[in-house]
Design a protein that fits this description.
The chain is of the alpha/beta class. The chain has eight helices and eleven strands. It has two domains: 71 residues, Arc Repressor Mutant, subunit A (Orthogonal Bundle); 113 residues, NAD(P)-binding Rossmann-like Domain (Rossmann fold, 3-Layer(aba) Sandwich), CATH 3.40.50. The strands form three sheets. Strands 8-5-4-9-10-11 form a six-stranded parallel sheet, with helices on both faces. A three-stranded antiparallel sheet has the order 1-3-2. Strands 6-7 form a two-stranded antiparallel sheet. The longest helix is centred in the first third of the chain and has 19 residues.
């Protein structure tokens, strides 16, 4: 991937992939930037511009072959393989994530769950036995895991992040309501429902 591609463009690619996958599930073989734009609320010109960063995926007047574009986007996003993910935090949110089936067939699989609470260690959540955080580095290195999801209280988020980075984690999906500090080579994405709700209420009269 050329380093000059804006991150905002990369952020739209999973939306395109999700919409295309849905179209394929509906039995459709061909689509257009106009149809994708209507589904996603993104202009057709923007979609064409975004995709042009990665090559010519369609022909003017004939549209995009959906199976081909799906596979190409999977390659660009590197989800044409399965990424193992470490989940840290086995509280209500962590438990919900461990039970969530939406990762399956979309490039990700939770491989292990950790917590530091004696009440949770050794308990079963879905198909996982919660392991102590003391084993975090060992398990991550043993399985060569590169991605982690952080579902711990805000006051513990930075300490856990430091452990994850030291163990070799390169990408963190952070559900803790706090910004974390990581080296430049580690990517962080934040998910805070309250922030999104506060953004939304601005527009509600």
């Amino acid at each position: 991937m050329p380093p000059t591609i804006p991150d905002i463009v990369i952020g739209r690619l999973p939306l395109y992939l999700r919409a295309l996958t849905r179209l394929a599930q509906e039995g459709q073989q061909v689509t257009s930037s106009h149809e994708l734009g209507q589904r996603l609320g993104i202009s057709s010109a923007q979609i064409r511009k975004d995709l042009s960063h990665f090559g010519g995926f369609g022909k003017q007047g004939t549209g995009y072959q959906i199976p081909y574009l799906v596979e190409q986007l999977k390659q660009v996003l590197k989800v044409n393989r399965e990424w193992e993910v470490a989940l840290v935090g086995a509280g209500d949110l962590g438990s919900a994530l461990a039970h969530y089936r939406g990762f399956v067939n979309r490039g990700f699989r939770i491989a292990c769950v950790f917590d530091n609470s004696p009440d949770k260690i050794g308990k079963t959540i879905g198909e996982f036995v919660v392991q102590p955080t003391e084993k975090l580095a060992e398990v991550i290195r043993e399985h060569n895991i590169k991605i982690a999801m952080l579902a711990v209280p805000a006051e513990h988020a930075q300490d856990v992040t430091d452990e994850l980075v030291a163990a070799g984690i390169q990408g963190i999906l952070n559900y803790a309501p706090i910004n974390i500090n990581v080296p430049e080579n580690v990517r962080v994405q934040y998910i805070d429902p309250v922030v999104q709700l506060q953004r939304m209420t601005y527009y509600i009269p």
